[in-house]
Amino acid sequence: LQPKGGNFIKSLHFSHTEIGKLEKEIIAGRKPVLEGLESHLSIDRVYLARSVKGDFEKSIRQICRERDIPLKSVPKQFFNKFGRLNHQGIIALKSSTTYYKLDDLLPILNEREEPPLVLLLEGVTDVRNLGAIARSAEIFSVDILVLPMKNSAPVNAEAFKTSAGAIRWLNIAREKSIASAIKRLKQYGFIIYGTELNGDKAPSDIRGEDRIALVMGSEEKGLGSETLKLLDEKIRIPQAGKTDSLNVSVASGICLYEILKKRRFGN
Question: For residue range 9-60, what is the model confidence (pLDDT) as tens digits?
């Protein structure tokens, strides 16, 4: 596996500081965006005005579909905050990493002596949480970090900074959905562990000798119903306080630590 070295727009409202950060990661305008896509520049996602039609729209949609780049149709008002940019109804956000397909990375894992460890994130949209999780993933020897195409924070400069640069050492796969990624991992013999408030196992119960795929969801919604059905084991982190749940980056760190501890020091 090769070491690998963008701000998720949740609404149409940005502060001036956020705009300044985003402008460094934006490609604006029809020709620049098209050239960026055709030159295989690392693009996190594309925003296209609903009013844009014709051959240009068809070309953008086709390229994004072929390269598995998320494309979102937005109203013209979306671009009002970017008045200084000659956006022409389209902007693309650059990525701070190279995205792979899971099928490109999985065969390489068979060459490893230690059982592989894959971390999948579902519904983690906060870029700082993503960065913190990436830092833990690198420290605790995650082989592949899997993100879904939709409803996921981008791997941008802020995520890179929050990870303390750990993102550059991670292999990041982007898949159409976490459920489809899990089904593929099962075909490769992975045992699927996921966190759930009603889980019957603790992180220390994870078997270190397994080919492990660990699925983490957001603290607000947890894992989706389809994903929960695909789990082999449901993990619950013991709690003593009154707060409903841990921050997903903290929960990820706890689970990954337990896996590494089991593998390096046994029971």
Answer: 333 334 444 444 445 578 999 999 998 888 877 888 899 999 999 999 999 9
CB 71 within 8 A of CB 20: no
Residue 24: per-residue pLDDT: 58
How many Å apart are CA 130 and CA 122, to the nearest integer? 11
Contacts of 240 (CB under 8 A, 6+ apart): none
Both structure tokens of 11:
């609404």
SS3 assignment for the chain = CCCCCCCCCCCCCCCHHHHHHHHCCEEECHHHHHHHHHCCCCEEEEEEECCCCCHHHHHHHHHHHHHCCCEEEECHHHHHHHCCCCCCCEEEEECCCCEECHHHHHHHHCCCCCCCEEEEEECCCCHHHHHHHHHHHHHCCCCEEEEECCCCCCCCHHHHHHCCCHHHHCCEEEECCHHHHHHHHHHCCCEEEEECCCCCECHHHCCCCCCEEEEEEECCCECCHHHHHHCCEEECCCCCCCCCCCCHHHHHHHHHHHHHHHHHHCC
- Phi and psi of 246, rounded to 5°? -85, 155
**pTM for the whole thing?**
0.80
Identity of the residue numbered 130 = L
